[in-house]
TrEMBL record:
Catalytic activity entry: L-erythrulose 1-phosphate = D-erythrulose 4-phosphate; D-glyceraldehyde 3-phosphate = dihydroxyacetone phosphate
Assembly and oligomerization: Homodimer.
UniProt-recorded Gene Ontology molecular function terms: triose-phosphate isomerase activity
Assigned EC number: 5.3.1.1
HAMAP family in the cross-refs: TIM_B
UniProt protein name: Triosephosphate isomerase
Transmembrane segments: none
GO BP annotation list: gluconeogenesis; glyceraldehyde-3-phosphate biosynthetic process; glycerol catabolic process; glycolytic process
InterPro entries given in the database record: Aldolase_TIM, TIM_sf, TrioseP_Isoase_bac/euk, Triosephosphate_isomerase, Triosephosphate_isomerase_AS
Cellular component terms per the entry's GO annotation: cytosol
Biological function: Involved in the gluconeogenesis. Catalyzes stereospecifically the conversion of dihydroxyacetone phosphate (DHAP) to D-glyceraldehyde-3-phosphate (G3P).
Amino acid sequence: TPDVRPLVAGNWKMNGTRQSLTEIKAMAQGVQGPLSQHVDALICPPATLLYVATALSTDTPLMIGGQDCHYSTCGAHTGDISAEMIADCFGTHVIVGHSERRTDHAETDQQVRAKADAAHAVDLTAIICVGETADERDAYQTLDVLKRQIFGSVPQTATAENTVIAYEPVWAIGTGVTPTNSDVEVAHAFMRAELVARLGAEGSRMRILYGGSVKPSNARELMSIDNVDGALIGGASLKAEDFLAIYSVY
Ligand code: PEP
């Protein structure tokens, strides 16, 4: 999208121990070149590594984020973390509504929207994930699902600064299978139109990432599709070598 700064974001999911911090260090080093002037880089490690990861990437362009937050500010929610806790560890972003959260924890659009609101309240950028399942795709419901999820999960107060959309077809996550370029193009154009209809100029500049089996070998092609403003990467974000190779397609 013209005048939109791409974002290459990694989601480590439930992977990574202190040993993996060497990868964060290498990533923080690797994103310091001239590319950092016009491409953003973000890693979302597990919450246990958040604080050390931000310390390791201080004074580098690598940003660190959380993988989820609760929609409440604090209180009796054993095992959850709040947006404020992420901000307190110097995180700048938080992923909300990832399909694994929607499936494993039965999160609804309404809850995802509340999580985005909680992120915004402490100045975190919310990366709101949407995407259809294989069954929905087979039933030709992809665009209906995207419309419903964008309507339900994106706060009315979302701006191009505080919100990023990630389109992740559920059947493409961790499978090695990706949609065709034309399917990605159609989905992203549709989401762009929905965002503009909802949010006006903010929607026209809001970043829409593609996620689902992005690898060094397919990133260049996927990132060149209209309205694809970066990537959300799972498996290929665990190793600095792969993450930096994807970052370098820009
Ligand atoms: C993800 O779950 O955000 C993701 C895109 O995973 P992968 O890249 O491993 O398909």
